[in-house]
Request: fold
Amino acid sequence: MGQEFALYYKPWTLFIIMQSVGLLLFMGGMVYKFSFYFKGQRKSLYRKPDYLLMLRALWRYVVIQKQLAQQSLPRWFAHISIFYGFMGLLMLSAIAVALETVIPADSSFSRYMLYGQGHNYYKAAGDFFGLLMLLGLLIAFGRRYIIKDGQLYTDSTDSIALISLLVLVVTGFLLEAMRISLLPPAPELQYSFIGYNLAGLFRGLSGIPPLATALWVFHSALNAALLAYLPHSKFLHIINSPLEIVLNVSEERMRGDLYI
Reply:
C-alpha cells in the first residue's frame, strides 16, 4: 500500500467487481449447501443449548483443531496452516480494499497504514501468512502425491484446489518482489522478508510495471474464483465439519467424551 500505488497500475474497479462476484457466488453456494444440512436437522433434545459446552468445542475443534492433532501432527499442521494462512491473507486484502475505497485518506488510521509503521507491519504480516500457507500446501502435496497417504482419496477437485492455492501464494510473493524491485533501497523494505529476498530476480529488468499489473489482475481473479469454488469443493469441510461439531455438541451431552 502507500507508495507502491504509483509504481504500477492497479485497476481497482475491476478488482472490486471480481471480488464482489466471487463473494456473492461464495455466499450463494454456502446458502445452497447448508440449506440441505438444516433441512435434515432434528428438533433439539434440549430446550436450551449448552453454550458453554459449545464454546469449549469451538476452541478445541475449530480454533486449535485438537481432533487432527491427535490423529497426525503433519496433517494438523498442514490443515491449520492453510486455514489460518488463507484467512490471514483474506483479512489483509479486506484491509487494503477498505483503505482504498472506504476509509478516508486523511484519517489517522490511513496515514498509519499507508505511510507509518503500520505499513511495515502489514507487509510483514502478508509474508508471514503467505509463508504459513505455503508450508501447509507443501505438506499437503507431499502427503497426497509423494507419500500417497492411504487415508487420503485424491481426485481432480483436490488437485484443482491445491494447485490454485499454491499459485495464489506464489503470485503474491512475486508481486511483492516486483514492487520492491521498483523501489530504491531502504531498510523498511526488509519487513517483506520473502519479497525482499526475491526482488533481485526483477531488479534492473525493463517492463516490470505492466507485467506487475497483469500479474495483479490474474492474482485477483484467481482469488475471486477460489471464493466461488470453495462451497463446491471438498475444502468445504474446513467450514462445515467444525460447524457441525459446535452445533451438535449439546445434543451429544450424554456422550460428552467425544467432544470434551
Q: What stands out?
A: Residues 177 and 233 are 31 Å apart (CA to CA).
